[in-house]
Write the structure tokens for this entry.
Amino acid sequence: MRDNNKIAIVGAGVAGIALAILATKQGYQVSLYERASQVSSIGAGVTLWSNAIFVLTQMGMEKEIMRLGGIPSFMRQCDQFGAVQSELNIEELNTISGFPSVTILRRDLMSVLANALDDLGVKIQFNCSITALDINELKQKFMLVVGADGRMNSVVRHYLYPVKVQPCYQGFINIIGISRLDKGVLDNVIHDYRGPGERFGIVPINDDLCYWAGGWSTPMDKERPLSTWYDEMHQRFSHWPKHVQHVLKYYDKSSLNRIFVHDIEPLPYWHQGNVLIIGDAAHAPLPTSGQGACQALEDAWHLALNLGKYEELDNALSCFYQQRSVKTSSTQNVGRQLAKKIFGGYSGFQPTSGISSVSVEQLSEFWMKGLI
Ligand SMILES: Cc1cc2nc3c(=O)[nH]c(=O)nc-3n(C[C@H](O)[C@H](O)[C@H](O)COP(=O)(O)OP(=O)(O)OC[C@H]3O[C@@H](n4cnc5c(N)ncnc54)[C@H](O)[C@@H]3O)c2cc1C
């Protein structure tokens, strides 16, 4: 028999834990299932733009996030020789948005979220890999089953779309990592270096810590040994500006990760009956959008609000899709357009017009849409 106060969440990533916190605070009884044995910290770091900090502020977590993270002042886009092409004044963006933009290591973000959930007395059920059969059972027992089970193999998305939604490989690889540098090297500026079919982004977290991603266009080859990808990265970027050289000299080897970058197409629906997908499972964008975790947090906030607002579950979920799908589809498209400009499929490179083509006002308006 279904209990109208119970919510099952599949996946303890950003979206799943944030929703678990918000729904618990609203009085729902939440069961959160995670296939891994602990909260994952995959991905070196994330930039939580003002929209994400808005949500974290509503959750009462912004101080802890800001304690662990950094607030960069500028994002500077340069060519592969270091010549500045354009600049984004992040301080101005923050002022216009009313909330800061915070850079943070992925493991710190996840531990702040996991601790907040623990403080509410909710235990994540680890080593619990949910299957389609489990979803059949869960949807009988719970008012709502939420798939927050990520971009690549979401079981809940597959449950909703029997013709499997295939994540699309976008023709480029990212190698990510964390480096400790000499104090002040990065000047509190996000550096975004771009060359033909290649990009190296460096994001400061504090005076001597940063995360970074080196990317280039390439066919996907999962058989190739990891070490050869890392060697290729060193070769490709060996003549790039000094910041890149610093980062490649001082990275923590255990933080390295190779990602064949995929996204998914915008989907025509995210729910059927009492089964719903959110976060990357519903609308995974490319990292070039810089918005995946931010949109996952927005999902959690909007969904929790709608559950409190509508008596009928179907109205709450339909309204959720209407509220969220335009913004998340735009985010997916922005990520794709930028990736195409930089990595250009496999065929040729078109110089980008740079971040300066979007004003801070426009950026702020887009990111804060639907929140304030
Ligand atoms: C290189 C890179 C850089 C990025 N940089 C940024 C950035 O700067 N800013 C930003 O906002 N975003 C960034 N992102 C995107 C961001 O990391 C994701 O969009 C975000 O983590 C999505 O959260 P999620 O909770 O939907 O999914 P995930 O974080 O992927 O969580 C899904 C969880 O579900 C679990 N799971 C999966 N299947 C099952 C199952 N069957 N049963 C139980 N559990 C299951 C997984 O183990 C995982 O813990 C970046 C991504 C990449 C790849």
In short: Residues 10-16, 33-36, 40, 43, 46-47, 129-130, 148-150, 155, 174, 176, 213, 259, 279-281, 287, 290-294, 296 surround flavin-adenine dinucleotide (CB under 6 Å).
